[in-house]
Amino acid sequence: TATAIAFGTEIAVTLPESADPQIFDEVFAEIARLEAIFTLFDPQSPLQRLNAAGRLTKPPAELVEALEICDRVFYLTEGAFDPTVQPLWELYERHFAENPADTEGPTKEAIAATRSRLGWEKVSISAEEIRFAEPGMAMTLNGVAPGYTADRIVALLREKGVEHALIDTGEFRALGSRPDGTLWQVAIRAGEEIVDHVELVNRALATSAGNATAFDLEQQFHHLFHPNRDRFQSAMRTICVEAPSGALADALATA
Fold first, then answer.
1. What SS3 class is residue 69?
2. Cβ atoms of residues 137 and 131 within 8 Å
3. Which terminal Cβ of the chain has fewer Cβ within 10 Å, N or C?
4. 3-class DSSP state for residue 184?
5. Distance (Å, whole) CA 3 – CA 33
6. Cβ–Cβ < 8 Å for 62, 68
7. Alpha-helix runs per DSSP H in 81-167
8. Which of 233, 66, 46 is nearest to 146 (CA)?
9. How many other C-beta atoms can be found within 10 angstroms of the C-beta atom of residue 58?
10. pTM score, two decimals?
């Protein structure tokens, strides 16, 4: 097992002892390349250039593919999963940075004004261009990019002839079973407590919990926004989704 930092967390890749150690370098280089496409922390990333300009010509194929997955999950969840909630994130982050002890959150007027800039149906996606229909829109792919990246790493490992691996990018993706034929065991945590285990073979497991990123001291307001509802779920509520792909599990857990 080798570890690194990506997507704001420690990630881990577990390979058979017989695997070429150089594969770890290739895997972590690919993870870094993909993170550079999806990050919100680099103004030059394709995603942030899209957010800043409202359009992106000749987008990376990986960005287009991830957005097509988002499109599928948006309609599958009747709009609960909507990457265009980024302006809401920025509103809450700014509000609590200025008012850290507040218990009420932004005003209803501020929330309504921000919500007017949301809407997945206002995003057009093609291999030639990604475009927002209205100014002031922005999106986050934090709810799909880690799982999508895990899928891409599994594809890379298959190309290298690796038949057994466990990828942890914040979401888990298993390639085959463990080398000895037993199943990969993944722990499910609620806060610091391990509450369950899941066995994986060629499947993915994603987890979402509000306490992973809370804005306020009381953890009433956190990163799991519903695009059209003001009520937040309990920050301690943990949702896990197992699915055939990391991207699908990640997006559905967010939803």
1. helix
2. no
3. N
4. strand
5. 16
6. no
7. 86-98, 108-115, 145-159
8. 66
9. 10
10. 0.94
Q: Residue 107, class by beta-carbon neighbours within 10 Å (0-12 exposed, 13-18 middle, 19+ buried)? A: exposed
> What is the chain's Cα-based Rg?
19
Please tell me the distance from the alpha carbon of residue 46 to that of residue 25, in angstroms, as a whole number: 24
* Residue that is written with structure tokens 């953890």 in the block: 219
Q: What are the two backbone dihedrals, phi and then psi, of residue 249, each rounded to the nearest 5 degrees?
A: -60, -45
Specify the pLDDT at position 215.
86
Residue located via tokens 């850290």: 100
| Lookup: tokens for 45 | 């990333």
Least confident of 32-41, 42-51, 119-128, 187-196: 187-196
- Report how far residue 253's alpha carbon sits from residue 239's, in angstroms, rounded to the nearest whole number: 6
The yes-or-no verdict on residue 143 having pLDDT over 80 is: yes
Could you tell me if 166 and 174 are in contact, meaning their C-beta atoms sit under 8 angstroms apart?
A: yes
Amino acid at 37: I
107, 108, 125, 136 from 113: Cα distances, Å: 10, 9, 25, 11
pLDDT reported for residue 188 = 86
The tokens describing 151, both together, are 């899928």
Per-residue burial over 124-147, b if 16 or more Cβ lie within 10 Å, else e, is: ebeeeebbbeeeebbbbbbbbbbb
Beta-carbon contacts of residue 5 (< 8 Å; ≥ 6 apart)? 11
The residue whose two tokens read 């003001």 is 230
Among 114, 117, 146, which residue's Cα sits nearest to residue 253? Answer: 146
